[in-house]
Amino acid sequence: MEKKNARFETEVVHHGYDSSIYHGSLAPPIFQTSTFSFQTAEQGEKRFAGEEEGYIYSRLGNPTVKMLEDRIAALENGEAGLAFGSGMAAVSAVLIALTRSNGHILCSQGIYGCTFGLLQLLKNKYEVEHSFCSMQTEAEIKDAIRPETTCIYIETPINPTMALIDIELVVSIAKEYGIKVVVDNTFCSPYLQQPLDIGCDIIIHSATKYIGGHGDVIAGLIVGSKEMIQEISMTTLKDIGGVMSPFDAWLLIRGLKTLHVRMDRHCDNAEYVIEQLRGHEAIESVFYPSDKNNPSYSIMKKQMKRGGGLISFTIKGGKAEAQKLLNELNLIKIAVSLGDAETLIQHPATMTHAVVPKENREQMGITDNLIRLSVGLEAKEDIWDDLKQALDKIA
Length: 395
Ligand SMILES: Cc1ncc(COP(=O)(O)O)c(C=O)c1O
What we know:
7-stranded mixed beta sheet; binds pyridoxal-5'-phosphate; globular; alpha/beta; 42% helix
């Protein structure tokens, strides 16, 4: 990884790219190749033996993808990064790397629906156990740790209830027990939260979201120590093969250049919308990390720069009213995913978390009247006008 030497806002634009090597091309080249030729058979032998640096085959490494991996590592203040074909490819590579049969994963009470599905698969096929914990107190976390726990896996803010977990608290306990801590940092991006600085071992991104920022790529990234990333690269990534394409890496390098500007605008718009929502008669409650009434507010001040672009809220009513609200919208798109320029709305109980059994969903706070909004980059007044006219119809 290239030495980090500039402020975040400069690193997102420049880190790891020297245009003079590429004819002065301002945009980095896309090395759209599956393989790399060797000058001699001996050179091929040396590269395979790890005795000479250089590319072999794009599943094992590609220059455009490497540029992105180095840049995300610098932005997360980690030693090394690794790119995957989707956020779930990244999640599964990390969980496979950090678990063993008859081992145990301790998870935050709310996690992304497909991560929940993966945990079920690991349990049913490979006897990797898991359990959930709200992780709000030291006693609660210590009680939930088992002798066979190898990994603590958290999302904070929790998808989609916006509750936060104190990363420092989790890390301090995990270190006592010699357990690795993984944080899914998708909702924050490195601009709002840097869990490696707090002591966690690996961070994961669904780069599909704020890193890409334009809703045109599915991708995953992880960052951690050189040793751990090298191990995952040469085992789960290489042999299972969920790699990122060079073109997708290029899209993400492009998306990253505006991350800081976009994130601030997402936050500005979300703060405005949450204030408006609070006063509407159809609303039961609102959930947003930097809301002073949020029970996690003090944690937010400790570990996040701002509240982020995601809001969730409950309406008075149930599934029928929630679906009617979505159907009444004009500007706001009904879609899962988040972090795009467009404001997106979804109904977690029947969409992102539909695979989670109702009982688990309710423990996660995902009720039938909960709605999640990924606040986009449109004029904040236009976002609110659309939401308001739909809320008025269900009030
Ligand atoms: C928090 C979180 N983690 C991981 C994922 C999976 O990412 P992908 O859809 O890129 O595979 C998602 C997708 O929505 C997510 O919201």
